[in-house]
Design brief:
Blueprint lengths: L4 E6 L5 H12 L4 E4 L4 H11 L4 E6 L2 E3 L15 E9 L6 E2 L5 E4 H5 L14 E12 L5 H17 L7 H12 L7 H17 L13 H12 L7
Parallel strand pairs: 1-2, 1-3, 5-8
Antiparallel strand pairs: 3-7, 4-8, 5-6, 5-7
Length: 234
């Protein structure tokens, strides 16, 4: 095991149990689990309370770590850096960037987190983005989960990245999401991407509406209203 603690944060992802076991095998020790906490900000803040060390790995419940990822060579965060994010490969459109990626994060930063729609964008201090990928983000586990991923990400990118991403980069990523065609439920991810951009336009003058992106019940209702009750939960 590395010098860092590790947490897998899951909500309703069908493959969360198996991906938790995979993460433990890859990191070589116990990975703590926080599951089913309502409220994304609350869930992230609670992660800080289940670890024993200041710096820890944090993985989403749909993250499949690369078995070749060598956590033993990972350097601690420098002073002033609150989080490092490794890329994750997107299974439906081929993108590889921070979305769904593995994180090394400070629990003190989570305790001091501010307000942002993309919750971890509100951490104090600097955020580093590693050039390499640490695994695959397996969000496409059901029609609903694939749609939700496309909807949330493209709504946030359409509004304007809270991580300071250049507008051209954000636009290119939205276009790639909207063209999603590979892997399971790619069409659902593409539909979510298009609907997320439309939501960003209609909610542009009402910042509070963007908080719906962190409300699982609202997202499921929106999906069901547009696409029928295809949702599969674990």
């Amino acid at each position: 095991m590395t010098e860092f603690d590790a947490v897998l944060l899951s909500y309703d992802e069908p493959m969360a149990n198996s991906l938790h076991a995979r993460l433990q095998r890859a990191l070589g020790g116990t990975v703590k689990r926080l599951h089913g906490v309502h409220g994304m900000r609350r869930a992230y803040r609670l992660c800080a309370e289940v670890v024993d060390r200041e710096q820890f790995f944090l993985a989403d419940g749909d993250f499949a770590i690369d078995t070749d990822f060598d956590s033993a060579v990972v350097e601690p965060l420098d002073e002033g850096v609150s989080m490092r994010v490794w890329r994750a490969v997107n299974p439906v459109n081929g993108l590889s960037y921070g979305y769904g990626g593995l994180k090394l994060i400070r629990r003190s930063a989570l305790r001091e987190m501010g307000e942002a729609v993309d919750v971890l964008a509100a951490l104090p201090g600097r955020i580093e983005f590693a050039a390499s990928a640490a695994g695959i983000t397996r969000f496409n586990q059901s029609p609903f989960h694939a749609w939700k991923a496309g909807f949330r990400e493209c709504a946030m990118l359409g509004r304007g990245s809270e991580y300071g991403m250049a507008d051209d980069d954000a636009r290119q990523r939205v276009e790639a999401w909207a063209r999603s065609h590979s892997g399971e439920f790619a069409a659902c991810a593409a539909a979510g991407a298009r609907e997320g951009v439309a939501f960003a336009r209609e909610a542009a003058r009402d910042a509070k509406r963007f908080d719906h992106l962190n409300d699982p019940a609202w997202l499921r209702e929106r999906f069901t209203a547009a696409h029928g009750d295809q949702a599969v939960s674990g």
